[in-house]
Amino acid sequence: METILxxxxxxxxVRTRSSAALDVLAVAGLMxxxxxxxxxxxxxxxxxxxxxxxxxxxxxxxxRHRAAAGIALYLTLGVxxxxxxxxxxxxxxxxxxxxxxxxxxxxxxxxxxxGMIAASLCVYILGATWLVLFLGMAPxxxxxxxxxxxxxxxxxxxxxxxxxxxxxxx
Length: 170
Fold this sequence. Notes:
The chain is 66% helix and 0% strand. The protein is mainly alpha-helical. The protein has one domain: Arp2/3 complex 21 kDa subunit ARPC3. Helix 1 packs across helix 3 (64-79), helix 2 packs parallel to helix 4 (93-106) and helix 5 crosses helix 6 (139-146). The two termini are 24 Å apart.
C-alpha cells in the first residue's frame, strides 16, 4: 500500500561542491530578491513578499538540503546586518524560521501540492506563534493580521509553485 509520504532522494541532485555552493548562493539570492518584492500591509507588521514562493519551489530545483542551506545563508546574512530582509523588525522571525523548514516539508509528500500546503501551514503557525510571543498579540488577533490577509496571495503562489515543481520533476 502506497503512502502519501514520499522519499525524494531521487530528486536530490548529485553535483560537485562548486555547483552545490552555486545552488546555495542562488537560493540565498532568490530569497533576497523575493524579499524586495514586498507589499506592506498597513494593519500588519508582516509584509506580503514572494519569499514563500522561493521557499516552496527551491527544493524541487536544487534539492532540499541545498534549498534549506540557501535560506539559512540568507537569514544569516540578514542577521549579520546586510539589508536583505523585507521588514526591519523582529515581527517576521517566525515566518523566516519556517522558511528553512519548508524545503524538508514539501519533499515529504508524494504530491507537491500536499507538501506545499503543509509547508504553508508551518509558515503560518510559526509566524503567528511568534507574533503572539514577540508582540504579545492575542492568538486570534495574530491570525487576523498574520495569516488571513496572506491566504489569497499564498494560494496563487502555491499554484505557481506546483507548476514549477511539476516542470522540475519531469
